[in-house]
Amino acid sequence: AELPLRTVLREHRSALLPAMILTCVLTSAVVVLVVITPTMMQKTFGMSPSHTFALSALGIVFLNIGCVLAGLLVDRIGAWRAVLVYSLLLPVGIAVLYASLIAGGVWLGAAYAIAGLSCGVVGAVPSVMVNLFPAQVRVSGISFTYNIAYALWASTTPLMLIALMPTSPWICVGYCVAMGAVGAVSAAHFGKRQPT
Description:
The protein is an all-alpha fold. The chain has one domain: MFS general substrate transporter like domains (Growth Hormone, Chain: A, Up-down Bundle). Helices cover 84% and strands 0% of the residues. It has eight helices and no strands. The chain has helices at residues 4-11, 13-43, 49-77, 79-102, 108-118, 121-132, 138-164, 171-193.
């Protein structure tokens, strides 16, 4: 009868803001763990490309495991609470990783694995998003908010972090602290209004 996106924009505007905010939090985890850190390992910390690739691959494997664990947590405590938990874990895991890098690579493989596990927000956020929109407009609602937010956030964040990295090697940790706080506050606020 009409374009589903028009229905989303007219009748489900209240779901757009939490969906976009949580997409930015999800994007932050991916950008820091998968995009920025391998680049910084070579440029800032002087690691070889082969060593960087191996560690990055390990981090991605543990990111996938973290997503599965996040899904199990969603089943136990609910999607919003799982997002809250993993929003708080995100900066902790990234801090462990960067502390290891700054310390000269002490236990770096374990640190990268911990960071990957702590990025389970990547698995928890979609559980929230599927419940923000009714079934008849779910694909349109999620694809619109996710792609707009991801395109804007993922295109600007890496450039910003790389530009700021010379000021402090902790810049990615600070960024994840900020985004973790955004995710936690959003989960606490929106989760009360839209329990899942």
